[in-house]
Amino acid sequence: MMLRLATSSLLLLALWQGTAAADPLQQDYSDWTLSCDNLNRCEARNINEHNGLVLHLSREAGPQGRAAVRLDNEHAEVFEGTDPRPIAARLLLDGKALHLNPREWQLSEHLAQADNRLVVDDFISHIRNASVLTLSGQDKAPARQSVSLKGLKAALLAMDAQQGRVETRTAWATPGSKTADTVPAAPVAPVLPPFTPPPSLTEREIAALTQFAATNIDTGDCTLEQSERDISLTPLSSDKALILVNCDMGAYNLFSLASVVTRHAPLKAEELALQAPFKLNGSQLMEPELINVEMDEARGQLSIYAKGRGIGDCGESSRWAYDGKQFRLAEYRSEPHCDGYSQNGWPLLWTTGG
Question: What is the residue-wise DSSP string for 174-216?
Answer without folding.
Answer: S--SB-GGGSPPPPPPPBPPPP-PPPPPPHHHHHHHHHHHHHH
